[in-house]
Amino acid sequence: VQLQAFGGGLVQPGGSLGLSCVASGNIISANRMGWYRQGPGLQRELVATATSTGDVDYDDSVKGRFTISRDIAKNTVHLQMNSLKLEDTAVYYCNAHQMYYCSGDRCYEDTVRYANDMWGQGTLVTVSS
Which pLDDT score is estimated for 37? Predict the structure, then answer.
């Protein structure tokens, strides 16, 4: 099982960018999927998350500008970022929280695995004029 992030890049202030994350493998469920980011010299922080029941949460700094969407059937999560600011520059990480999956191609009782947090590789978003 792995999380793979797509998107990112260079964008001017006020511009838009979309990030996508695909969780691949024999996944049973993930309670929550979302995005975190780590700016230069800063700690990793929550950006936005979406639960399997449709609840979403945003950091105050991105409310009204970013929109998270999740396709549970496809194990994907997308982050649409609008009105980007210089301070949005960061490496963005995809996260799956409380994930159940099966090791191998088939699921048996003794092949079910649990991961409290699984992370994808980071993707760099640079907001600059």
Answer: 98
**Which residues have CB under 8 Å from 82's CB, separation 6+?**
16, 65, 66, 67
Whole-number pLDDT of residue 51: 96
3-state SS of the chain?
A: CEEEEEECEEECCCCCEEEEEEEECEEEEEEEEEEEEECCCCCCEEEEEEECCCCEEECCCCCCCEEEEEECCCCEEEEEECCCCHHHCEEEEEEEEEEEEECCCCCCHHHEEEEEEEECCCEEEEECC
pLDDT digits (tens, 9 = 90+) for 30-53: 999 999 999 989 999 999 999 999
Query: Residue 41: exposed, middle, or buried by beta-carbon count in 10 A (0-12, 13-18, 19+)?
Result: exposed
